[in-house]
């Protein structure tokens, strides 16, 4: 997948600490807005925030977000992804995948996920295995070719399965980040210069109402 310039993003500081605190104060749910290079903050009502803050669920794209494919076809973790997933696991933050695969890979998400695991594992070159178990049954894939991202279906299904939890989506392309933000996700484009590679875990905890 090709990287492209991001036209709107979650407003997060590139330095944590005091800057993170100011970010959280002004944005409990920052969303991408078309044509705004800096991102625009949208603050929902108090009732909505309280309903959504119980449990963040962080969804990812897979290819070139968490997993990198080399020129020889071998796959491994994207830089920083393994430690980031480990940090989420240590804080008991649920994660999931929203990723395009051929709809012919199975009749259900479980069947398509099983084929996806097989395909990735067959080319895996990483020093540690991909942590499929951390994703549980939260792997959403197209039931038909019409459901392929950037169509909204996968994000809608994942959000519905997440109940009233705040949902986060992280991917490497501006198109997907913008689409997810338009559907109510806290969306973040990964691996951009001069920004954290992934949305800071501490910010995710605060967005989910899990600050201590």
Automatic annotation (TrEMBL):
Residues 1-27 form the signal peptide. SUPFAM superfamilies: HAD-like. Keywords: Signal. Gene3D superfamilies: HAD superfamily/HAD-like. InterPro entries: HAD-like_sf, HAD_sf. This is Haloacid dehalogenase-like hydrolase. It comes from Streptomyces durmitorensis.
